[in-house]
């Protein structure tokens, strides 16, 4: 922002060319703000620091469903040809406990505390089984599962079992009819389905369902093709929906017999102001609030149906309270194919449970009044996060108490490209703590399940099950790294000198999730820090040396510095994108180099090199005029007092302008380089330029391009005028082609003479 205001101020003084440049730069700035939605740390697949354990079997394909046992020691998996139970009680490996081979399992739920309900497509003849969870192979009966079990293996479905009754939303039958139904109803209770006339759903894709016991309702989340409600909806506009059915529903007596009397639906809108609507729900999870159920939140990942970028997604949270308000409000009544009218819901009956026992006239209204007028908007009317770089497709969410007792929401987002992003939601902006590469290839089938008690995420895919610990605090080697991570799971324990998992039993851990303020948290750091030992690198004259610098964080700013803390200039050095420094060894470049990273106001030396010539130098015969300016410079450097290491490490008093000098020094400006190194604040003008570091290269490139274009344009105009004149003169003065050039030449010369 500071950069932007400086730019603005400068541009106001300059002409229209600058204005244009400014516009180009602002677009660049927005891009760079987006770039701040970068994961701080990235772990590639196979990284030992962030180890994953996997279960993979060549006979188990397309894992469709994951189900955790209540003690989180067993993971049940529904796959293409089997149901598996995996032992996940050991932290390092996953082993197969039991396997039942059957059909393509699409639904896998706990039937009761001891048994599982599984159903599969069975080649278009859906079958279900109820099997003991601890012995999947035991004898059992398969029963036909008409109207309950998915007919095909490709479409998404959702199921919830409450008191042994199965609520499913799936496709059934050969024509792929979509239903929301209750099966396995107990005693005298009816199995229920959606009414068929009018059509209550329009080409739905079911995403998720959840039992809200405080309301006696099942909430269902899905997308469908939008209703044409008179206004400008495009015919194929997708809308995301939340719908309800009541568990006490038993269908009407005469009207709506064996049909839901409690089905209503609302639109879910993931949009901020008038900005792009993320209208396609991809996944949604529930974060319950047992103290006040209305504060239960549903976190959904959405993508836009139409967008300029191929990877764009957003996360929105909706509250149960807001959903209840929509369901108890006004409705639209469906009159015929395309016509809807307003229904005020004056008695507030619609959206309530218990209607199945009501009069025929009420049920006749219920029959055609199922869409709420009010849509459900996200909490705070804003997106929790949005990305134009990542296509998030699945998520898990956890509320975690940080070291200071404050609670934070952490999202685990699976990207289409195969990464898991761990994001903490902060008031200022979401912070992506880390990304972990899970797959190298995009997967067809994906599933994400979180065990908060075990602190692990399980990811099911076409290939197998992968376990990822929610945190791995020990990857942060010191207090500064631990605090800079801003991971609510991790804090620095100064007693044992380790970055450890935050838990109730270990209070007083050093952590600052909001600001990552190292100097405040890591007091002991100041006294004991010695920085890394300096590595000596002996090199021959004219040898090209490459000094590597690996900074774990991708949010820090890395600079190379001399021992006097001044910045290593752009010339004759090559600063690479991977932060390494490349240069040719000369008398002048023999020096000490420190790679310094700065993040959230904290500066630390990552690595330090002393580049030296061999003991018997042959170098004095070398022509010394090659870099005369720098020769002077380096002699000056050696004259300077070295700054004590502790000061360097915690040097926060140095003006920020000074350290960014590099950006404004170029090979054509070596005199200034030297000045900048020894007197970084030598003029106010420099200070202004300096704070715009990262755009300098672009500006130079842009200006060069602009000048080239201008030259081309001028050249074109000159040539064009020239040729016009030739065309004019040729026929009159000289019909002979061969002489035209001469004539034009002469004319031009004639014209130019008076000017010169
Ligand atoms: C769970 O359901 C199965 C199948 O109906 C039944 O045999 C078993 O006794 C039930 N278990 C409990 C604890 O109710
Ligand atoms: C199952 O996996 C195979 C590859 O392992 C894939 O070709 C197929 O499309 C998958 N089926 C479904 C329904 O995802
Ligand atoms: C249905 O209504 C009748 C009276 O109209 C009442 O006696 C009965 O208890 C009600 N049943 C339920 C399940 O609410």
Summarize the structure.
Residues 532-608 form the Ig-like domain. The chain is α+β, with helices and mostly antiparallel strands and 756 residues long.
Helix/strand layout:
Elements: H1 2-13, H2 16-35, E1 41-43, E2 53-55, E3 65-68, E4 74-78, E5 82-87, E6 95-101, E7 105-110, E8 115-120, E9 127-132, E10 142-144, E11 158-162, E12 165-172, E13 177-183, E14 205-212, E15 217-225, E16 238-246, E17 264-268, E18 280-287, E19 297-303, E20 313-319, H3 320-328, E21 331-336, E22 339-343, H4 360-368, E23 369-372, E24 385-387, E25 392-401, E26 407-415, E27 419-425, E28 431-437, E29 446-451, E30 456-461, E31 465-469, H5 479-484, E32 490-493, E33 498-501, H6 518-521, H7 523-528, E34 534-538, E35 544-547, E36 557-561, E37 574-575, E38 581-584, E39 592-599, E40 602-612, H8 628-639, H9 645-649, H10 656-659, H11 670-678, H12 684-690, H13 696-733, H14 737-755
Parallel strand pairs: 1-28, 34-40
Antiparallel strand pairs: 2-31, 3-4, 4-5, 5-6, 7-8, 8-9, 9-10, 11-12, 12-13, 14-15, 15-16, 16-17, 18-19, 19-20, 20-24, 21-22, 21-23, 25-26, 26-27, 27-28, 29-30, 30-31, 32-33, 35-38, 36-39, 37-38, 39-40
Helix pairs in contact: 1-2, 8-11, 13-14
One 2-acetamido-2-deoxy-beta-D-glucopyranose binds next to loops.
Subcellular location: Membrane
Protein name: Semaphorin-4A Semaphorin-B
GO molecular function: chemorepellent activity; semaphorin receptor binding
């Amino acid at each position: 922002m500071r950069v932007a205001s400086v730019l603005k101020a400068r541009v106001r003084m300059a002409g229209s060319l600058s204005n244009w440049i400014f516009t180009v730069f602002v677009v660049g700035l927005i891009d760079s703000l987006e770039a701040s939605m970068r994961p701080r740390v990235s772990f590639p697949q196979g990284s030992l620091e962030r180890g994953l354990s996997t279960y993979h079997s060549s006979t188990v394909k397309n894992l469709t469903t994951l189900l955790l046992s209540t003690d989180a020691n067993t993971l049940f998996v529904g796959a293409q040809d089997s149901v598996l139970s995996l032992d996940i009680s050991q932290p390092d490996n996953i082993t197969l406990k039991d396997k039942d081979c059957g059909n393509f399992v699409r639904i896998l739920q706990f039937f009761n505390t001891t048994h599982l309900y599984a159903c599969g497509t069975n080649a278009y003849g859906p079958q279900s089984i109820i099997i003991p969870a601890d012995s999947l192979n035991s004898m059992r009966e398969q029963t036909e599962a008409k109207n309950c079990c998915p007919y095909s293996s490709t479409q998404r479905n959702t199921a919830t079992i409450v008191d042994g009754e199965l609520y499913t939303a799936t496709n059934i039958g050969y024509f792929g009819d979509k239903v929301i139904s209750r099966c396995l109803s107990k005693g005298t209770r009816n199995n229920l389905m959606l009414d068929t006339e009018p059509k209550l759903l329009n080409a739905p894709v079911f995403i998720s369902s959840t039992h809200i016991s405080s309301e006696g309702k099942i909430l269902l989340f899905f997308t469908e093709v939008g209703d044409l409600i008179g206004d400008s909806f495009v015919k194929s506009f997708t809308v995301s929906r939340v719908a309800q059915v009541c568990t006490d529903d038993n269908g009407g007596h005469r009207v709506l017999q064996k049909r839901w009397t409690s089905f209503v639906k609302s639109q879910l809108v993931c949009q901020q102001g008038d900005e792009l609507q993320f209208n396609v729900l991809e996944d949604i999870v529930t974060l319950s609030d047992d103290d006040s159920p209305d504060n239960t939140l549903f976190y959904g990942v959405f993508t836009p149906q139409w967008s300029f970028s191929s990877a764009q997604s957003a996360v929105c949270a909706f509250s149960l309270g807001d959903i209840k308000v929509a369901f108890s409000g006004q409705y639209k009544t469906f009159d015929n194919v395309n016509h809807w009218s307003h229904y005020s819901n004056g008695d507030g009956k619609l959206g309530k449970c218990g209607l199945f026992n009501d009069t025929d006239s009420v049920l006749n209204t219920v029959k055609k009044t199922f869409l709420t007028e009010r849509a459900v908007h996200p909490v705070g009317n804003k997106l929790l996060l949005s990305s134009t770089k990542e296509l998030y497709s699945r998520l898990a969410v956890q509320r975690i108490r940080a070291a200071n007792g404050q609670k934070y929401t952490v999202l685990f987002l699976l990207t289409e490209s195969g990464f898991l992003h761990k994001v903490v939601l902060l008031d200022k902006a979401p912070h992506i703590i880390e990304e972990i590469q899970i797959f190298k290839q995009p997967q067809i089938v994906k599933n994400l399940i979180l065990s908060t008690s075990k602190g692990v995420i399980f990811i099911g895919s076409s290939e197998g099950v992968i376990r990822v610990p929610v945190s791995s605090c020990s990857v942060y080697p010191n207090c500064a790294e631990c605090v800079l991570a801003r991971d609510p799971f991790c804090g620095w324990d100064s007693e044992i000198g380790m970055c450890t998992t935050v838990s109730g039993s270990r209070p007083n851990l050093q952590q600052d999730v909001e600001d990552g303020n190292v100097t405040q948290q890591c007091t002991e750091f100041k006294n004991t820090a010695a920085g890394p030992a300096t590595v000596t690198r002996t090199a021959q004259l004219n040898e090209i040396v490459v000094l590597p610098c690996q900074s774990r964080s991708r949010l820090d700013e890395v600079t190379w510095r001399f021992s006097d803390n001044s910045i290593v200039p752009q010339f004759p050095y090559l600063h690479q994108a991977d932060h390494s420094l490349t240069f040719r060894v000369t008398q002048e470049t023999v020096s000490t180099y420190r790679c310094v990273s700065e993040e959230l106001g904290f500066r630390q030396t990552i690595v330090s090199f002393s580049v030296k010539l061999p003991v018997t130098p042959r170098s004095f015969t070398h022509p010394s005029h090659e870099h005369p300016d720098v020769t002077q410079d380096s002699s000056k450097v050696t004259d300077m007092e070295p700054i004590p290491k502790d000061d360097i490490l915690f040097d926060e008093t140095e003006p920020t302008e000074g350290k960014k000098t590099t950006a404004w020094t170029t090979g054509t400006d070596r005199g200034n380089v030297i000045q900048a190194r020894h007197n970084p604040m030598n003029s106010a003008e420099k200070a202004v330029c300096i704070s715009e570091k990262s755009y300098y290269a672009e500006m130079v490139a842009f200006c060069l391009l602009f000048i080239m274009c201008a030259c081309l344009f001028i050249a074109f105009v000159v040539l064009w005028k020239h040729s016009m004149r030739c065309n004019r003169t040729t026929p009159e003065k000289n019909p002979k082609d061969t002489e035209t050039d001469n004539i034009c030449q002469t004319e031009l010369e004639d014209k130019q003479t008076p000017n010169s």
